[in-house]
């Protein structure tokens, strides 16, 4: 319940990178844009054509007179069929603000403060479990040792945040 794939991956789907200086976030491989989808998934042909795999955002450009300028490196020129994808890609990254004086950080999307709390996780899981077959995952769950189960999930969440 604390982590996994598919429907059980509630924790990972509830966090996003808030990009500051871009020193911790990989440009292509991490889901740092608002939709959380990595650019390598959204633009696979451009990713294959890029010379900058596993490169941090900070290494993908520089600040010139207070504005961020991308320095994208390609293996070859785009094919005619890739030009539309390239235009969409450039439009998507054009408005990104990189702040050299701010650290990158994880933001918890399920609380207005952006900070992960037990209450926000509980509310997310409890509300997400309401359907014809379930009436609140925590109300019907029989736990032999609730304190121990709670501590296990908290430790797992801490390890997820640290990575």
Could you walk me through the main structural features you see in this protein, from its secondary elements to its overall organization?
The chain has seven helices and four strands. It has 163 residues and is α+β, with helices and mostly antiparallel strands. It folds into two domains: 6-13 and 105-162, no CATH class; 20-94, no CATH class. The strands form two sheets. It has a two-stranded antiparallel sheet. Strand 2 (61-64) and strand 3 (67-70) form a beta hairpin. The radius of gyration is 20 Å and the shape is elongated.
Q: Largest sheet, described in full?
A: 2 strands, antiparallel
Q: Give the overall shape.
A: elongated
H and E string: HEHHEEHEHHH
Average pLDDT score: 79
Radius of gyration (Å): 20 Å
Number of domains: 2
* Annotation, overall tally of beta strands: 4
Neighbour order of strands in the largest sheet: 1-4
Assembly annotation: single chain
Low-confidence stretches: none
Strand content: 5-15%
Structural class: alpha+beta
- Number of distinct helices: 7
- Give the end-to-end Cα distance, rounded to a whole number of Å: 18 Å
Portion in helices = 25-40%
């Amino acid at each position: 319940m604390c982590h996994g794939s598919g429907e059980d991956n509630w924790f990972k789907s509830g966090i996003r990178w808030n990009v500051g200086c871009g020193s911790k976030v990989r440009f292509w491989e991490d889901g740092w844009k608002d939709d959380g989808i990595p650019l390598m998934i959204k633009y696979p042909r451009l990713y294959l054509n890029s010379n900058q795999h596993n490169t941090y955002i900070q290494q993908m450009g520089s600040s010139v007179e207070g504005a961020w300028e991308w320095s994208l490196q390609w293996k070859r020129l785009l094919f005619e069929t890739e030009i539309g994808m390239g235009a969409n890609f450039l439009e998507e990254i054009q408005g990104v603000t990189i702040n050299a004086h701010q650290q990158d950080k994880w933001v918890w999307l399920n609380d207005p403060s952006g900070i992960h709390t037990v209450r926000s996780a509980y509310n997310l899981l409890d509300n997400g479990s309401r359907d014809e077959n379930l009436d609140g995952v925590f109300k019907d769950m029989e736990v032999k040792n609730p304190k121990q189960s709670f501590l296990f999930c908290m430790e797992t969440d801490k390890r997820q945040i640290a990575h």
